[in-house]
Amino acid sequence: MNAYDELMEFARTTQALAQVAGRLGWDQETMMPRAAAPQRAEEMAAMEAVLHARRTDPQVGAWLEAAETTGPVQVANLRLIRRDFERARKVPARLAAEIARVTSMAQGVWARAREEDDFAAFAPTLKEVVALKREEGAALAEGADVYDAMLQDYEPGATAAGLEEMFARMRPRLVALREAVLDKPAPTALTGTFDEGAQMRLARQVAKTFGYDMARGRVDKAVHPFSSGSGLDVRITTRTNPVDPFNSLYSTIHEVGHGAYEQNIHADHLLTPVGQGVSMGVHESQSRIYENQLGRSEAFAVWLYGQMREAFGDLSVPDAQALYAAINRVGSGYIRTEADEVHYNLHILLRFDLERDLIARRLEVGDLEAAWNERFATDFGVAVDRASNGVLQDVHWSIGLFGYFPTYTLGNVYAGCLYEALRRDVPDLEGALSQGDLSPATDWLRDKVQTHGGLFQPRETIARACGEEPSEEPLLRYLEEKFGGLYGV
């Protein structure tokens, strides 16, 4: 074999081991007995030690130097392996294993603190996580901006300054839309009690309707919905609430967007660096367009109304139009994952600012809850009533995902661009959605975005799909048009 072939054989084994580590994480959130947490932490640390050793193996550097490429897939694989190799070499093996061990334990501590609404019980563990991530970030940055270095794990090429500029352009229009909408009477909410078993059956049906392949996946329940895996084993989770079926339904559709992306990457890329989503921003563009532009559309509500009546019996709303209004009801709720489209990005801006301050040492963990509550009251006009509705609601910081949150809004921006192009390319999109036929939309997304995996850079992936460079304008136009029509503003 030549150098490239030897490198790819080594990389495939590394990718397979990373998938095994991911499966351990999936099990921890879905099936693992609570008392197993200390052992699982050691298992995760052991796996990370093995993966770190492979990613920093000097032979990888030698192969990279010697490898010759003959096409774009080979070029992309080398680019991705080189990026991981150079980043991994900057982080000591001891630190990588310790982060894996501590974040595995921290996840359970967070879950218990969330159940008990007790941030103080979680704060010492979070302080340890933050200290480790600051150390890792400093190693990666090598004197440059630490938060920028962290962003590269989730959105290669992004910078905090660039995101801050984009968010600053978005914020005034989001706030103006929020104020205009909240000044109008709210539509009737969906009320009642909804059997949780029926919710799960509907969730699985909707997952398949959106193209999720159950032969290569499964739908389970977790405290915080997530997706896991790639290729032939892509799993998603959701959650249920007996008085809010939208929670389950739209968590499922969101995670199906992630899962479908991984399932639809070209089969030739299986267990290679190219065979995964290119970035979390692009990943979020898929989950958000599935959930919002498609799943919360007026046309889809026509089909969904009939499915919900079959699942739950008569509903408190009289028809599909009323269901559409209820699905898109705007309110200053506490929970990011349940937020309407008008408020969602304001939730992200809050987290972006707080985590940047944490990493930069402008904010310490002991002051985080107060800082969160103060900012939330300013942005949403509501006082946080308990920690599970505030600083403890998200799992991300407990598992060290600093730099992840801004990719949610970046994903919304990308989704706005993709939706404009989709509507242009699929003229009868609404007719298909009203019949519960998602294939014109999901086939377009598969061909334009998903099949490529990591072949192109993140922004290039979106630009190629849309025919122009991504910007926040399509998203803002979509929001203003949609909610302006719903609320008469």
From TrEMBL:
**Which Pfam families does UniProt cross-reference here?**
Peptidase_M32
Which chemical reaction does it catalyze? Release of a C-terminal amino acid with broad specificity, except for -Pro
Q: Name one GO molecular function term.
A: metal ion binding
Domain of life (superkingdom) = Bacteria
Name it.
Answer: Metal-dependent carboxypeptidase
Q: Which cofactor does it need?
A: Zn(2+)
UniProt entry tagged with the keyword Hydrolase: yes
Q: What is its EC number?
A: 3.4.17.19
Q: What does this protein do?
A: Broad specificity carboxypetidase that releases amino acids sequentially from the C-terminus, including neutral, aromatic, polar and basic residues.
Cofactor info, note text: Binds 1 zinc ion per subunit.
Q: Which family does it belong to?
A: Belongs to the peptidase M32 family.
Q: Known PROSITE patterns for this protein?
A: PEPTIDASE_M32
Binding of Zn(2+): at which residues? 254, 258, 284
